[in-house]
Design a protein that fits this description.
- The protein is an alpha+beta fold and 135 residues long.
- The chain has helices at residues 35-50, 56-72, 123-130, and strands spanning 7-10, 20-23, 26-29, 95-96, 99-104, 108-112, 118-122.
- The strands form 2 sheets. The chain has a 4-stranded antiparallel β-sheet with strand order 4-5-6-7, with helices on one face. It has a 3-stranded mixed β-sheet with strand order 1-3-2, covered by helices on one side.
- The longest helix has 17 residues, at 56-72.
- The radius of gyration is 21 Å and the shape is elongated.
- The mean pLDDT is 83.
Length: 135
């Protein structure tokens, strides 16, 4: 089986009057959709690409089933640009509200629990929960 790649482009599709379209190996998506609708558009247009002989009704039914299964499995769109800036992150060794910070990456903070274990959370949720350190 050959590996086919599809190229995704996100742009407003007002003139085309659609939420997504597939032309050859290119899929264009309108960003003005809810995350669930955007997922449905990605699946829908990808099915058009993979199975060009299916009818629109078959594509719609298949995309609804796949989108629903993916959403039920817990997959969600995240906004990468909402990650707090690095200066808001704690540093390894900091103790904040009784929690010792073990490791910090660009997106995650791992800290020691009082029970002896450790937990990893996103930097965004850390800042929301504990605030940013005052250095």
């Amino acid at each position: 089986m050959s590996k086919r790649r599809v190229h995704l482009t996100v742009r407003k599709l007002g003139r085309e009057q659609c939420w997504g379209q597939q032309i050859e190996h290119e899929i264009e998506l309108d960003p003005r959709q809810s995350p669930a609708d955007l997922l449905d558009s990605v699946v829908h247009e990808t099915l058009h690409y993979v199975y060009p002989d299916l009818t629109e009704a078959q594509i719609v039914e298949g995309s609804w089933l796949l989108q629903d299964a993916i959403y039920q499995a817990g997959y969600r769109k995240i906004e990468l640009d909402k990650t707090p800036p690095a200066e808001m992150a704690p540093k390894p060794g900091d103790v904040i509200q009784g929690r010792k910070v073990l490791k910090v990456t660009r997106r995650y903070v791992t800290y020691k629990l009082q029970t002896g274990g450790s937990q990893t959370v996103t930097l965004e949720s850390w800042v929301k929960r504990f605030g940013s350190p005052d250095y």
